[in-house]
Write a structure and sequence with these properties.
The chain is of the alpha+beta class. The protein has 4 helices and 3 strands. The protein has helices at about 15-25, 30-35, 40-55, 75-95, and strands spanning about 30, 55-65, 65-75. It has a 3-stranded antiparallel β-sheet. The chain is elongated, with a radius of gyration of 15 Å. The relative contact order is 0.20.
């Protein structure tokens, strides 16, 4: 069996964690993502931008009660990429068990 290439955008612990949170939530504020991933604000911001640049998430910047708010939502392309990533990892695990 050939090993599938793992998506380099998703093959990062923090980006994978962000995607996992967004799969379970309709949308998530920056503060919720920061809390759930235990990431620093700076690192989280960089990783969100990488996911946005890959079109895996949508980032909405708005104001709520006169305070800036950043919302993130997973896109259909992001959902598909995550599913493909999971299938690729499962394929790796099956190969390892067959020996």
């Amino acid at each position: 069996m050939d090993f599938k290439d793992l998506d380099p955008v998703l093959h990062s612990q923090l980006r994978l964690a962000i995607m996992n949170v967004l799969l379970s939530e309709k949308e998530a504020e920056f503060t919720l993502l920061k809390e759930k991933t235990n990431a620093t604000a700076g690192n989280l911001s960089v990783q969100i931008n990488k996911l946005r640049d890959a079109s895996y998430i949508e980032v909405i910047k708005q104001f709520k009660d006169n305070y800036p708010q950043t919302l993130c939502k997973i896109t259909p392309a992001g959902r598909k990429a995550f599913e493909n990533y999971v299938h690729a990892i499962q394929a790796y695990l099956k190969v390892g068990k067959s020996k």
